[in-house]
Design brief:
Layout (H helix, E strand, L loop, with lengths): L4 E3 L10 E4 L5 H7 L5 E5 L2 E4 L2 E3 L4 E5 L7 E5 L3 H4 L8 E3 L5 E3 L2 E4 L1 H4 L12 E3 L4 E4 L2 E3 L5 E3 L3 E5 L2 E4 L4 E3 L2 E5 L2 E4 L6 E6 L9 E5 L2 E4 L6 E4 L7 E5 L2 E2 L23 E5 L16 E2 L2 H4 L4 H4 L7
Parallel strand pairs: 2-3, 3-6, 4-7, 5-8, 6-9, 7-10, 8-11, 9-12, 10-13, 11-14, 12-15, 13-16, 14-17, 15-18, 16-19, 17-20, 18-21, 19-22, 20-23, 21-24, 22-25, 24-26, 26-27
Antiparallel strand pairs: 1-2
């Protein structure tokens, strides 16, 4: 294992310490060596097969490759093998003020295991810290790829793939110019499973100027289903492929739950063959320009502007 270079010399007092992880090194070791006040960790291009936990604030993980696919953090735990969905993440972010740039977070459990109904949830990332920022990132998985669990989170120019509930949780999260790509699943799929549990909770998912794509032949995909009764998801200015079902939204368990009656699902200016305003589920909303303006980044985050 190559030596981690801790570059503390000749830095101004206000600058973060910089740690460099060489190919073949350990990102977790770099995090363990980082000061409790945070650090910038630069990661050389390569594949790092390890579970990574970020439990210190003000950490930046930055891939040094030309593109985000050059630097990959990957592991293969699942809900079945790890003892629960939340324990299966390749990257766990529990501290505040995290930034990820130019990296891939991946869970490749389904590469060697058939995706079955029970126990195949396999997270690429789980985020419970606040003010987390992801720029030019890839998140790869199938069921439950991105667990935007709680706190405030901002994703910009990211690629997220999966098939069942692959963006889920109770965070207040904004996805800006991201591609959401459905991988194959014989039963169709769901992009989101937001889990706002009461009407006074301050959480929602906003997707602005995003693209919804899918593997060839994939159909019967819904924009979301409510994991909890007051799920809140809004799509703005989003291009939707033909794989998106005309109804757009679906009940968590059809015939059993009635969460669509209390959830808030809305769209503004959806385009593409998957944009079917006239055929959307009757519980969902088509917003006016004035209503959509309430979900602009700075307004949505009540003063925090991650851009």
């Amino acid at each position: 294992m190559r030596v981690l270079a801790l570059l503390l010399c000749a830095l101004p007092l206000f600058a973060q310490p910089v740690i460099k992880v060489s190919a073949g090194g350990s990102i977790q070791k770099a995090l363990d060596e980082a000061p409790s006040t945070g650090a910038l960790i630069n990661i050389e291009a390569g594949t790092y097969r390890e579970v990574v936990s970020v439990n210190k604030p003000n950490i930046t993980l930055r891939g040094l490759g030309v593109q985000n696919s050059d630097t990959v953090i990957v592991f293969d735990k699942s809900a079945g093998t790890a003892g629960g969905t939340s324990k299966s993440a390749t990257v766990n972010i529990t501290a505040d003020n995290f930034t990820g740039e130019n990296l891939t977070f991946s869970n490749d459990f389904n590469r060697t295991h058939e995706q079955v109904q029970a126990g195949s949830q396999a997270l690429a990332v789980a985020v419970t810290g606040s003010k987390a920022i992801f720029r030019n990132m890839r998140f790869l998985g199938n069921q439950d790829t991105v667990y935007a669990a709680k706190g405030t989170q901002y994703f910009t120019h990211c690629y997220i793939e999966g098939n069942v509930d692959f963006i889920f949780g109770d965070a207040k999260a904004f996805f800006d110019h991201c591609e959401l790509h459905n991988t194959p699943h014989k039963a169709g799929g769901y992009v989101t499973a937001q889990s706002k549990n009461s009407p006074d909770q301050d959480s929602a998912y906003i997707f602005d100027h995003c693209r919804l794509t899918a593997e060839p032949g994939q159909t019967r995909v819904y924009l979301g289903r409510p994991w909890r009764p007051y799920a809140a998801v809004i799509f703005l200015n989003t291009e939707m492929g033909p794989h998106i079902e005309a109804a757009g939204w679906r009940e968590w368990h059809a015939g059993e739950t009635k969460s669509l009656e209390t959830a808030y699902y809305a769209e503004y200016n959806s385009t593409g063959p998957g944009a079917n305003a006239a055929k959307r589920d009757a519980h969902s909303h088509q917003l006016t320009a004035a209503e959509a303006a309430k979900y602009e980044v700075k307004t949505f985050f009540q003063g925090w502007d991650p851009r």
